[in-house]
Amino acid sequence: xxxxxxxxxxxxxxxxxxDGESLIRFDTVAYYPDRNEIIYAITNNGKISVITYDxxxxxxxxxxxxxxxxxxxxxxxx
Length: 78
What we know:
0% of the residues lie in helices and 55% in strands. It is an all-beta fold. The strands form two sheets. Strands 1-2-3-4 form a four-stranded antiparallel β-sheet, with no helix packed on it. The chain has a three-stranded antiparallel β-sheet with strand order 5-6-7, with no helix packed on it. The chain is globular. The N and C termini lie close together (11 Å). The model is unreliable at 5-10 (pLDDT under 50).
């Protein structure tokens, strides 16, 4: 998992997310805790997109909201 206490970093591992239709790959490009933003290079069905997400927090940890349905994807193990 990513280290949320760093100002900006490269994540060599990334993670995969199954949205029920396909396996989507998230590779972290940078994290900016002062702005609560994270940038991912996302591979979905052979297409690569670089997208900035707002980072939210609840009692389960830090997460982003992905897709049209705003699915919570937890990015930390708090």
